[in-house]
């Protein structure tokens, strides 16, 4: 999923409103388990509960900021309820897609196992799908499927920025990448634990470093987040799906891919990377 252009390049104060309102009003409808769309009254009540003034939102009619907030909440709910939720896969569906792609492409790329034990020990399906598709559509181009080092961007042979965390993949390399990505697949978890939540905050940190590099050095490393597991993300973690969409529109993630969307979008994304390589990016 790419960000909706209507909600790109909005000031950080807008996202402070989104976070505060979401926290106070709530992210989901309890009766329907759908993503909630706060009303203008909900928003004003949330503001009052925080001891804040609502005049900048209703004075006396809804201000431009209020109208944009209402539009964003409606968009976020529709995108998650109608687009994202059907694409989130369970282990059975992910295995089917993994096996299908494995048979089709006969991959040579790394295909790691998950971290489960016993009968749940199996390939890391989403990671395998990502790796297979990148190998199949990159036309032999180098790719670092598992960089066990920090991502570094250099200029004139010297390090310009070195990111704080290891990422799950980099194209074509963790040194001067065109793209980096994080994969969050949790097919066998039974709760939305702190480890899952931490993954979102790690992605936010990576995105802030990418933003700083873009704003101060003019270098745009594409940053992707790919997540899957219907039970974990939809049944337990819908609020974090909302936060992923917020992060996407704040500019910290170039695209967020949900479940089966990886299969739909990644071939086209990899072709875009190839086009960037042919233009001479990244400069070293």
Which labels suit this protein?
284 residues, two-stranded antiparallel ribbon, globular, alpha/beta
Helix and strand arrangement:
Elements: H1 12-25, H2 40-49, H3 64-87, H4 91-105, H5 125-137, E1 152-155, E2 158-162, E3 169-171, E4 179-185, H6 194-217, E5 222-228, H7 230-236, H8 238-249, E6 255-258, H9 261-278
Parallel strand pairs: 4-5, 5-6
Antiparallel strand pairs: 1-2, 3-4
Structure notes:
The protein folds into two domains: 5-87, no CATH class; 91-278, no CATH class. It has nine helices and six strands, in the order H-H-H-H-H-E-E-E-E-H-E-H-H-E-H. It has helices spanning 12-25, 40-49, 64-87, 91-105, 125-137, 194-217, 230-236, 238-249, 261-278, and strands spanning 152-155, 158-162, 169-171, 179-185, 222-228, 255-258. It has a four-stranded mixed beta sheet, with helices on both faces. Strands 1-2 form a two-stranded antiparallel ribbon. Helix 6 (194-217) runs parallel beside helix 8 (238-249). The mean pLDDT is 93.
Kindly summarize this structure in a few lines.
With 284 residues, this protein is of the alpha/beta class.
Mean pLDDT: 93
In DSSP terms, counting alpha (H) and pi (I) runs of 4 or more, how many helices? 9
In percent terms, what proportion of residues is strand? 5-15%
Strand order of the largest sheet: 3-4-5-6
Number of E-state strands: 6
Could you tell me the radius of gyration in angstroms? 20 Å
List the helices and strands in order.
HHHHHEEEEHEHHEH
Query: How many domains make up the 3D coordinates?
Result: 2
Kindly, what is the distance between the CA atoms of the first and last residues, rounded to a whole number of angstroms?
A: 30 Å
- Largest sheet: number of strands, sense, barrel closure: 4 strands, mixed
Return the structural class.
alpha/beta
